Amino acid sequence: MTDLSADVVVGDFTVPFVISRPYLNFRICGGDYEYKTCLNVVVNGQVVRTETGRATERPHAATFDLTEWLGQDAHLELVDEADGEWGYVRVSDIVLSSTPTVVTVKPPLYAEALRPQLHFTARQWAMHRLNPVEREEGWLNDLNGLVFHDGEYHLFAQRWNKCWIHAISNDLVHWTELEPAFFEESLGTGVQSGSCVVDVDNTSGLAGPGEGPAMVAFWSRNDNRSQCVSYSLDRGRTWTHYAGNPIMDLPERDPMVFRDHRRAQWVMVLYGDDRYQLLRSDDLLHWESLNSSISNSFECPDFFELGIAGSDESRWALVRGDGRYSIGTFDGHTFVEETPQLQVDGGPHFYATQSWAAPGGGPHLHAPQGWAAAGDGTTPRRIQLAWMRGGRYPNMPFNQQVSIPCDLTLQQTPDGLRMYRQPVPELQTLSRTRHTWPARVLSPGTPWQIGTAWPLLRITCNATLAPNAELTLTICGTQITVTSNSIAILTPEPTPMSADQPTATAAKQPTITAVGKLDIVVDTTSVEVFANGGEASLTACVQPGHYELTLTASGTDCSLGELEVVELASIWPAV
After folding, report:
1. Is 519 helix (H, G, I), strand (E, B) or coil?
2. Is residue 163 predicted with pLDDT exceeding 70?
3. Alpha carbons 246 and 194: distance in angstroms, whole number
4. Which residue range or ranges hold the Glycosyl hydrolase family 32 N-terminal domain (predicted)?
């Protein structure tokens, strides 16, 4: 192919060619809008490679590896469907070659040095799935629309405000990332946080005869007032923006929608002006205010009913984006808090939680008809995830991770109702080699060192501590400190980004009952700590370090039960 230069003002420009050599080298600059300012290679009607201008005025070298399609007819497609700032793309020096201009040596996908092996992370940018030579961060932030449908757990998360990434699992442990569910409707309008439901009874009418049920996603545009809908009729594989968007124009955002089975209505929780507003609907598309609001609240709400363990009663839990939650009653109109606002998790990297309602919660006397997919008379199992906001992964093709799925239960304590969270039992399927040490008394001044070379661990132990005793477990340079009534974590920071940034992050979570059982999950770049079956927890991102475990007592002796360290397998294939 001869050289070609182009600067399209607005529109597409297509050139046919035969892939006679394995590499297509070129230079490109301009906007960094996926599918909007880019150069594509199209084979058999499908875009197989794409590259944007990366928001730079200086052309950079790029290479498409076309080995897979040697000898086939193709089209080179230059796309400029953007205007305004960076609303252009320029391409030059397009040459088919036997050698690539840009050569990038990449480790196998999911085997990168800092890739978490027990936690979900985004694969990479969508455009770079179509250009494996290039490396870019696979970003994720707020979790959206966790929904269980037809045997699959669906995980959605924002990629900034451009699209919802999408992954599925049938066991909560192993994940398959699909193509992004949907992108913003048009350049700059945005697609922000929200939720997803399954319209089993087709109340929306979005499913035609023989179709569905519809998966219906709710989200906000960048203007923080336009509430919109996208829907899927094929189990979440393809999505359509609702033609009537926006369905509401309110100065709010982060729509969280759920089915209130007791009153046969849909309920929406919207965030704005430091409070949540409640709305109702019969058909998911037309909403009316309940004239009920919840003050002292903070974005990304999650609202659900939980049965009280050991009781025939239930309560509602309202979880705020910053991890605070409160327990109370909900009559279909008003939420009345019965507890102070409490912290779900005391760790430094725990934010914007969402949860699944799935079969398996067990029988409950007051379960409303159709409360869960498991059938009448049972409560849904409530499974929570959080965005582990703030972790650092330099030079990696991904950025940010998601916490381990945790079962939520409502427990009665001496201080009233509390929500417990502990790792789902499915995590045990990753167990490989088990090491145990018998019970012992650990005295101050005599550290106990346990050599471990495997980076993926689950550590469990029962501890009995006097009021003046302190037990410290150190792993990956992270200190976990346990007292009779609290757990705390101290994580060293990587190289500070500024002179006034702290070199370590400390966090603490109190307990109501005496700390007894400890459950610690260690991944490549994270540590999660659980005490007393989920009464308290700490979630923290860490930097890889020595996996030797050291236990130290201070103050007075610490009595330890059997210590178990289990090596875990990766959740990713071929790792």
Report:
1. strand
2. yes
3. 14
4. 136-413
Q: Judge whether 345 and 336 are in contact, CB under 8 Å.
A: no
102 compared with 235, residue with greater pLDDT: 235
Provide the pLDDT for residue 359.
87
Helix (H) or strand (E) holding 128: helix 126-129
- The predicted model scores a pTM of 0.87
Asked if 240 and 189 count as a contact pair (C-beta separation under 8 A), the reply is no
- Please classify residue 5 by burial: count the beta carbons closer than 10 Å to its beta carbon, then call 0-12 exposed, 13-18 middle and 19+ buried: exposed
Question: What are phi and psi for residue 170, nearest 5 degrees?
Answer: -110, 5
Indicate the domain borders of the chain.
Answer: 1-136, 137-423, 429-568
Is CATH 3.30.420.40 correct for 429-568? Answer: no
137-423 CATH, one of 3.40.50.300, 2.115.10.20, 2.70.150.10, 3.40.50.720: 2.115.10.20
Within 10 angstroms of residue 347's Cβ, the number of other Cβ atoms is 28
Computed from CA positions of residues 175, 179, 182, 188, in that sequence, does the dihedral angle turn out positive or negative? positive
**Rounded-to-integer distance, Cα 37 and Cα 16, Å:** 19
Q: How many angstroms separate the CA atoms of 142 and 28, rounded?
A: 32
What is the rounded CA–CA span in Å between residue 341 and residue 418? 11
Q: Which of 503, 499, 482 is CA-nearest to residue 491?
A: 503
Comparing 1-136 with 429-568, is the CATH topology the same?
yes
Structure confidence at residue 503 (pLDDT): 54
The residue type of 60 is H
Spatial contact of 538 and 347, defined as CB atoms under 8 Å apart: yes
Q: 289 forms bridges with which residues in the sheet? A: 279
Q: Any long-range contacts for 309-312 (C-beta under 8 Å, 24+ apart)?
A: 309/409, 309/410, 309/411, 309/412, 310/412, 311/412, 312/364, 312/365, 312/366
* CA of residue 50 relative to chain centroid, distance: 26
Q: b vs e for 165-179, b when ≥16 Cβ sit within 10 Å of the residue's Cβ?
A: bbbbbeebbbbebbe
Q: Which residues pair with 530 in a beta bridge?
A: 519, 537
What is residue 477's predicted lDDT score, i.e. its pLDDT?
87
Q: How many helices (H) and strands (E) does the chain have?
A: 1, 44
Question: Architecture of 1-136 per CATH?
Answer: Sandwich (2.60)
Residue 250 · residue 269 · CB < 8 Å? no
- Residue count of the chain, please give it: 575
List pLDDT tens digits, range 313-372: 999 999 999 999 999 999 999 999 999 999 999 999 999 999 999 987 655 544 444 444
pLDDT tens readout for residues 227-274: 999 999 999 999 999 999 999 999 999 999 999 999 999 999 999 999
* Nearest-angstrom CA–CA distance, 87 and 106: 31
Please write the tens of the pLDDT for every residue from 169-228.
999 999 999 989 999 998 889 999 999 999 999 999 999 999 989 999 999 999 999 999
**Which H or E element spans position 214?**
strand 214-220
Give the largest Cα separation in the chain, rounded.
Answer: 79
Tokens 């007051």 locate to: 366
DSSP 467: T
3-state secondary structure at position 426? helix
